[in-house]
Amino acid sequence: MISINNISKSFSDKVILDNLSFTINHGDKIAIIGQSGIGKSVLLKTIIGLLRPDNGSITIDDQDINKISFKKLQKLRSKFGMVFQFGALFDSMTVGENIGLALQKLTNCDRFEINERISNSLLEVNMENTQDKMPSELSGGMKKRVGIARAIALNPEYMLYDEPTTGLDPIMTDSINRLINNFHSNG
Question: What angle do CA 58, 36, 42 make, to 5 degrees?
Answer without folding.
Answer: 20
